[in-house]
Structure formats: structure tokens, C-alpha cells
């Protein structure tokens, strides 16, 4: 179970967020806090894995708490200013969710965090770059827009994972053969990844005919 501490200056909002967490498989709430001082104390006493942290606390800004705790941090706040977002990530926050949000929005990010932790479960493991990219991608999987209309989430995931495993640029035809799907299907999903900035596209020129599009995961 992933142990979560919920921190919000409004105890009713804290209870709502705690309920959202408890509705997510593999998550448990180990405590709630309404001040920065309580958040720091409970971080030391309870040693949670993750803190859902509000920015607007009565004694200190949540951003100051984020840089002082040992646990991972998700900022969950009504503060949507660019400066606060930059400061949060600089302080080590792993995600930033703007209030109000739905249970599913939070749950999706919590599930992504769980997958991220599972990929980094062995602290002594010596990861390849591909392994690091997979963990980072898993963490932010829920942050991306929904699968475009007309696309299958399953096929999108298969194409994404296949591209992540590829060390060299790959064509739609190559990927289609690897996955057992139509070339046009592979091309459509690869082009969507490139449009989202998750893949890089280049051209391979042959001796005859039109140049062929090639794709590589943007993490490399």
C-alpha cells in the first residue's frame, strides 16, 4: 500500500481529498494536516510515501513545505500561477493538480504514481536510460490529453511501449510488422505521438521513391 498524507487548510476539503485517495486501489490515507507545522511533524512521524499538499496554508506556504519534507509531493491547490508551478517543480514536486478536480483526475494520477514507484522499486538497481524514460513516462501518463477520438487506448499503449523500447528510429512499416497491425494504423498512432511531442520524426531517403518517415521516442 502507498501511504498518503493529505494537507489542506480547509478540513472539509482535506476530507474530500482523503476520500478520493481511499477510493483508489493500493492507496491508504495515514493522516491529514491543516497547517504547515502539522504537515512537517506528520511527515517525520508517519513517514508517508506521498503528500497531497495545498499551497495556501495558514502558517507557511505549501511550496516551503514541499522542499522540506522527505516524502514525494503532489501539489493540489487553487494557485495556478506560472511562477508557483515552476517553483513547485523546482522544490521537487512530482505533479501539480489545480482545484477543483474530480476523483477520477486525482485517482488517475495516483495510479500513474503507483506504476512509477513499481518501476523504481529496487533502490540498488542500475537503470538503463530506457528504464528511466519508462518510469518518467509512467509518472506523467495521466497528465496527457485523452486518446484522440477514433483511437484505441490499447493500440495507443502498444505503439507507445514499442517505440519506447526501440533504440533506433523505426518506420511505421517496421513497427506494424512487430506488432501485427496495419501499416496505416501504425502510421496514424506514430504521427499522433509526434504531434504531442512524445516522439521525434525524421526522414530516411532511399535510392528511389518518396522519403520514409521514421520515429524515435522523444526521451532519447
Task: Please describe what this structure looks like.
- There is one protein chain.
- This protein is 45% helix and 19% strand.
- The chain contains nine helices and eight strands.
- The chain is elongated, with a radius of gyration of 21 Å.
- The two termini are 32 Å apart.
Helix fraction by DSSP (H/I, runs of at least 4):
40-55%
Beta-strand content bin: 15-25%
Order of helices and strands: EHEHEHEHEHHHEHHEE
- The number of helical segments is 9
N-to-C span: 32 Å
Helix/sheet category: alpha/beta
Q: Record the strand order, biggest sheet.
A: 2-1-3-4-5
How many runs of DSSP E, i.e. beta strands?
A: 8
Mean pLDDT, to the nearest integer, reads 89
Question: What's the main sheet like?
Answer: 5 strands, parallel
Q: Can I get a quick summary?
A:
Helix 5 (103-119) runs antiparallel to helix 6, helix 7 (153-165) crosses helix 9 (183-195) and helix 8 crosses helix 9 (183-195). 28% of the residues are buried. Helices cover 45% and strands 19% of the residues.
Q: What attributes characterize this protein structure?
A:
45% helix, 3-stranded antiparallel sheet, elongated, 9 helices, 5-stranded parallel sheet, 220 residues, alpha/beta
Which helices and strands occur, and which strands form pairs?
Elements: E1 2-7, H1 11-22, E2 27-33, H2 36-46, E3 50-53, H3 62-66, E4 72-77, H4 82-90, E5 95-98, H5 103-119, H6 129-139, H7 153-165, E6 170-171, H8 172-179, H9 183-195, E7 199-204, E8 212-217
Parallel strand pairs: 1-2, 1-3, 3-4, 4-5
Antiparallel strand pairs: 6-8, 7-8
Helix pairs in contact: 5-6, 7-9, 8-9
Amino acid at each position: 500500500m502507498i501511504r498518503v498524507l493529505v494537507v489542506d487548510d480547509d478540513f472539509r476539503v482535506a476530507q474530500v481529498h482523503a476520500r478520493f485517495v481511499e477510493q483508489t486501489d493500493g492507496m491508504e490515507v495515514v493522516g491529514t494536516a491543516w497547517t504547515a507545522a502539522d504537515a512537517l511533524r506528520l511527515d517525520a512521524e508517519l513517514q508517508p510515501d506521498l503528500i497531497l499538499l495545498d499551497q495556501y496554508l495558514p502558517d507557511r506556504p505549501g511550496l516551503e513545505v514541499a522542499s522540506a519534507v522527505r516524502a514525494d509531493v503532489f501539489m493540489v491547490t487553487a494557485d495556478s500561477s506560472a511562477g508557483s508551478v515552476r517553483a513547485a517543480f523546482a522544490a521537487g514536486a512530482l505533479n501539480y493538480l489545480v482545484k477543483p478536480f474530480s476523483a477520477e483526475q486525482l485517482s488517475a494520477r495516483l495510479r500513474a504514481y503507483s506504476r512509477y514507484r513499481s518501476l523504481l522499486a529496487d533502490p540498488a538497481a542500475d537503470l538503463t536510460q530506457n528504464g528511466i524514460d519508462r518510469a518518467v513516462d509512467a509518472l506523467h501518463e495521466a497528465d496527457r490529453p485523452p486518446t484522440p477520438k477514433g483511437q484505441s487506448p490499447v493500440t495507443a499503449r502498444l505503439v507507445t511501449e514499442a517505440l519506447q523500447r526501440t533504440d533506433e528510429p523505426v518506420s511505421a512499416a517496421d513497427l506494424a510488422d512487430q506488432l501485427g497491425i496495419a501499416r496505416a494504423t501504425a502510421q496514424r498512432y506514430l504521427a499522433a505521438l509526434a504531434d504531442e511531442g512524445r516522439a521525434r520524426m525524421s526522414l530516411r531517403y532511399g535510392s528511389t521513391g518518396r522519403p520514409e518517415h521514421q520515429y524515435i521516442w522523444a526521451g532519447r
